[in-house]
Amino acid sequence: AQSVTQLDSHVSVSEGTPVLLRCNYSSSYSPSLFWYVQHPNKGLQLLLKYTSAATLVKGINGFEAEFKKSETSFHLTKPSAHMSDAAEYFCVVSDRDIGNQFYFGTGTSLTVIP
Amino acid sequence: DADVTQTPRNRITKTGKRIMLECSQTKGHDRMYWYRQDPGLGLRLIYYSFDVKDINKGEISDGYSVSRQAQAKFSLSLESAIPNQTALYFCATSDGATGIHNEQFFGPGTRLTVL
């Protein structure tokens, strides 16, 4: 069965320090993985996606994620947090076995302290 | 103009009322989806449609119905609203031609409150 676990429901960092949002997945095939961001009162915006072309994926706004098959992880990182990064982040898995449907994690709320 | 639009953006209704949420897209995508978002639960799939004649139930379809009036329009109905259907509802689209790597594009959401 496909599932996504976001290991932290809330993460708080100081502005200018690194960000790490953790995501583990389970999939019966070769998945596609995505990170979406949701700013307050906004819809979801794609940050980046893993499509098997490269294990280190670079996204918008300085975010990147590394696909580690042996660890079934797809953690999101950013070297230096900005106040505008404060938002809800969702890890998503998509798999052929489920008709390419999206399965969402429960989200991680990122707070950036000035 | 936004590629995926939802109407209304906010709605307050009473228990037992019928309500329809509408979604339109200008992206030319064949696939459309309805999700609901509840705090601490992420997004859960209600219904999805891979084309006008292909509609499928998602994880939590009970109490909901949908209509795909055209490739660009996908409506979600609550026949008799109940308070636990209070949530944020999102419509999304994707291009089936891109296969497994197809990202989904989301509308701005409809905040529904059932009293």
Short description:
Chain A contains no helices and 12 strands. Chain A has 114 residues and is an all-beta fold.
Overall residue-averaged pLDDT value of chain A: 91
Write down the Rg of chain B: 13 Å
What is the 3D shape of chain B?
globular
Distance between the termini of chain A: 41 Å
- The count of β-strands of chain A is 12
Order of helices and strands of chain B: EEEEEEEEEEE
- Taken from the alpha-carbon principal axes, the silhouette of chain A is globular
Q: How confident is the prediction overall: mean pLDDT of chain B?
A: 92
Structural class of chain A: mainly beta
**Distinct helical segment count of chain A:** 0
Helix content of chain B: under 10%
Q: Largest sheet of chain B, described in full?
A: 7 strands, mixed
Assign a percent range to the helix content of chain A: under 10%
H/E order of the elements of chain A? EEEEEEEEEEEE
Unreliably modeled segments of chain B: none
Question: Which ranges of chain A are low-confidence, i.e. pLDDT below 50, for 5 or more consecutive residues?
Answer: none
Structural class of chain B: mainly beta
Most extensive interface between two protein chains, with residue counts: A-B, 22 and 23 residues
Count of β-strands of chain B: 11
- Report the sheet with the most strands of chain A, covering strand number, pairing sense and barrel closure: 6 strands, mixed
> What is the chains' assembly state?
heterodimer
